[in-house]
Amino acid sequence: MRAKLIQHEITRILSDNYALPCGKGCREIIDFLKEVFNADIKLIVPRENGSIMHAEVVIEGGTIMFANANDDFPPFPAGMFIHSPNAITFYDKALKNAATSIQEPAQREYGLSAGFEDAWGNVWWVTVPENK
Questions:
Q1: N or C, which terminus of the chain has less Cβ within 10 Å?
Q2: Domains in the chain, please, with CATH?
């Protein structure tokens, strides 16, 4: 399913459900997503050893699914693209939470856009879309 924007308010991230094995830092990533994107925790399923077998967070209507990596599913960085009227606020909050700027906010043909890399190597592009 492609990303879609409804009334310029609801965000979808790549698809409604995107999986991201995240090494040992899943709980820290959840904290980052809550702080930067005001994410809501939808579900956390722990393994017996305390690691996360499955987690879901919601950012402005879009769900990201992820889990702690293991021998069968090694960690890998992801690329995310978010359309939101709050995009520049997300960018500013990310930089205050150990993210590194890739692209400062700038007007593009598709909207006001910025990019950053989080502490786990994931790349986030955030854009305030053009009203057309």
A1: C
A2: 17-129 (3.10.180.10)
C-alpha count within 13 angstroms, C-beta hemisphere, residue 122 = 24
Phi and psi at residue 92, to the nearest 5°: -60, -45
- Residues 129 and 110: beta-carbon distance below 8 Å: yes
In order, the DSSP letters of the chain are -----BTTTB--BSBSEEEEE-TT-HHHHHHHHHHHH-PEEEEEEE-TTSSEEEEEEEETTEEEEEE---SSS-----EEEEE-TTHHHHHHHHHTTT-EEEEEEEEETTEEEEEEE-TTS-EEEEEEE---
